[in-house]
Amino acid sequence: MGECIFCRIVSGEIPAKKIYEDDLVLAFHDINPVAPVHFLVIPKAHVASMAELNAEHEAVMGRVMTVAARLAREQGATDGFRTIINTGRVGRQEVYHLHVHVIGGPDVLPAMLKR
Ligand code: AMP
Ligand code: ZN
What is the pLDDT of residues 47-73, one digit of tens each? Predict the structure, then answer.
């Protein structure tokens, strides 16, 4: 956990373009955006992935989702956006601190997955 990059962003050890922070969650711009709007919302307390969630995380994950919706609007994604949570090997998760991607912009996004 000491080496977790997103925990280090939470603690201020590593800089990030922060958008919002409260007692439970932090939102910041993705360092390698795939669309004009691309930010991440994370629980401040370390959770490795969505697969680790249990009932004790309900409050923080509720906060993650409501913050994601409000910030999407404020960041200009007023006509819709996509939220993605990559989980584990199959989900191609790269950073093992749970994060919700919020992706949008003026244009319609490509289809989610190729069939
Ligand atoms: P994934 O774990 O596959 O959902 O993707 C991790 C995401 O974190 C990628 O979109 C990266 O661009 C992003 N990322 C990695 N390091 C940083 C960082 N230091 N600041 C902001 N975003 C980051
Ligand atoms: Zn962490």
Answer: 999 999 999 999 999 999 999 999 999
